[in-house]
Amino acid sequence: MRCEEWKRGEMRLNYTGNGAYCYANSLAMLLQHHGSPIEAWYLECLTAVGFGAAEEGTPEGPVVFFSNRLPDSGSSLALDTLGFQFTDHRCEVEDDPDGRKSLEKLGQLLEHGPVMAGPLDMGKLSYLPWHQHAGGADHYVSIFGLTPDSVRLHDPAGFPYITMPIHQFVEAWRADAIDYRAGIFGMWGNLAREVTPGPDEMFLATERAIAERYESAGSGADLIRKLATMAAQSALPDYLRGMMLNFSIPLGARRCADYARFFEPFNEELARLKDAQGHCFANVFVALRENRSPYDDLMTLADLEQQFCDSVLRAAHVSASR
């Protein structure tokens, strides 16, 4: 089905299954430990990550992510929206070149419960069977143990109870190949809930955060159209095509399903647009798998992104004026 053929009244089915939700799953582990079990799909929505588009550098070259907010700020936003106090720590390279200070900080935070760490460079996580092909890809894990020689962690990519030598972990944690990082040795811990906002409050806070990011970064529709033109001209580099097939397109579809679920009780128009975009992402995926041009669906995806941006800005303005 072409994504522009999606009609009002079409069945909307919530998605349950695998997806590259590493920071949302890691946060869910922390929150469960602190007596606040919250599903990862809902946490992903509270991060307000996954809207618009942005170009980022990688060791192989520039790639397009279907997101205009970084996971670090999104993770902190989700905890804020949920009413938690927490410690969010990172530093500059010159402040801790060998990671000793950050390991000491990690140990202090572990006295209060598990800690989410990231971004990590997946290419440095040697326990991953595919790590040789994942250099520069970002990742987040939940740490629950630390000794002078090793860390113990749950990796939400499907690898619980990992023991990793401390020097290998520090190398991954430095994330030298991740361009977007806002400092090194990022970690979140020491969670304590101050207030318990209701669903309406959390929706409005998230709607406002999405609108504010659109206002500063734009819709990203033109970048998606640029990607469509590259596809039509058979100008997608192999590394970018591979990243789209294996990561960004399936992740985009998953996020659309979850945001449609998130918006549905409060704003049917936003839910409808996200559902329509989900169909587009799926069509792009199939086209790439079949070596066909995804031009039409990427162009429709861009148009829907602009519509969604405009609708969010209108809705946030109305909410603010009440």
Q: If you compute it from the alpha carbons, what radius of gyration comes out, rounded to the nearest whole angstrom?
A: 20 Å
What is the strand tally? 8
Q: Biggest sheet, open or closed, and with what strands and sense?
A: 6 strands, antiparallel
Strand order of the largest sheet: 3-8-4-5-6-7
User: What structural class do helix, strand and pairing data support?
Assistant: alpha+beta
CATH topology of the domain at 22-46 and 84-193: Cathepsin B, Chain A
Low-confidence stretches: none
Provide the helix percentage: 40-55%
Description:
By secondary structure, the protein is α+β, with helices and mostly antiparallel strands. The chain has a domain of 135 residues: Cathepsin B, Chain A, CATH 3.90.70. It is 48% helix and 16% strand. It has ten helices and eight strands. The strands form two sheets. A six-stranded antiparallel sheet has the order 3-8-4-5-6-7, sandwiched between helices. A two-stranded antiparallel sheet has the order 1-2. Strand 1 and strand 2 form a beta hairpin. The longest helix has 27 residues. The radius of gyration is 20 Å and the shape is globular. The termini are far apart. The model has no long low-confidence stretch (mean pLDDT 94).
